Amino acid sequence: MLLNDGHPGRRALSLGALTRRPHGRRARDLDYAVIGVRATGPEPAPDVGVCEIAVLRMRADGVVAREFSTLVEPSVSVAWRGMNGIGPSDVIGAPKAAEIVPDLAELFAGAVVAGHGLAMTARFLDTDFLPAHLPRGLPGLCTLRTLRSQVDLDGYSLARASYALNGRWPTARHSALGEARAVARLLAELLQNAPGEFRYVGPQPARPARPGAAGRNSAALGGSFRLKARTSPRGSLPASAARESVAGPLAVWPHRWRPLELDPALCAGAFGPDDRAAAVRDAERRSQGRRALAVGAAVTSALAATGAARALAHRFG
């Protein structure tokens, strides 16, 4: 189940999906690299670049192995402060995108890259980090499409979904790190609260980087640059929040699971009422088709068994 354009070798991410059907790999056996990105504009363009990125390397149970976050000095002018809270002075002294590619490659190695609205994040990885040799075709999982596919909610924005499911408004969600933490919590809770076993269908994570491979932690050091944390008020994380871990108590979700999972490929875009209705009708058609196949298989098996019994009776009768 691939949700991209069919050319994973050309892009940083190749999107897979979670399913309750018995296909693919157990989702709770995988590691996840949960990503948040902020840019100087709403989507990739010649005059838009990434100005902040955060990644949480996390186990399926919510235990965070590593947290990485830094402002990024883009190759374009820094605008859009009203939306991302980042101005030109904030990125002075921050690393360039190419300088943190070794860190990102290490964080992504052996993991499924997850994010809310991951298709747009993937486009920023393509434009800003692929030219600096970020690995291509990494397995991806969009939590936005996953929630739409599996859970019936009024709204699926990160803030609305978090509050509806775990009662928490995400802390500093306007920052890349705040977003990544909120997404990581939702993902861990999704896997914990699932009504059945989730499986990941898509590209399999590559073997993790060997111990001692290149990379720096967020205190950093030993390179020709230092990571730079956000200090502007909008999107800043208070000291108490900065010490929080996704490994804290995970919420028990209210029962909002869809009786039939929707095709994640139909859960993109605005996902308005007409889109939802079309996706539900598609799920019902597919369910009816599976039931018809099961009935056909059962009838065929019964006829074969009857024929075999008759043959034996004729032979020994």
UniProtKB/TrEMBL annotation:
One of its GO terms (molecular function) is DNA-directed DNA polymerase activity. The keyword Phosphoprotein does not apply. Gene3D superfamilies: Ribonuclease H-like superfamily/Ribonuclease H (3.30.420.10). Keywords: Exonuclease, Hydrolase, Nuclease, Nucleotidyltransferase, Transferase. Residues 31-196 form the Exonuclease domain. It comes from the Bacteria. InterPro entries: Ribonucl_H, RNaseH-like_sf, RNaseH_sf. Its EC number is 2.7.7.7. The keyword Nuclease applies. PANTHER family: DNA POLYMERASE III SUBUNIT EPSILON (PTHR30231), PROTEIN NEN2 (PTHR30231:SF4). This is DNA polymerase-3 subunit epsilon.
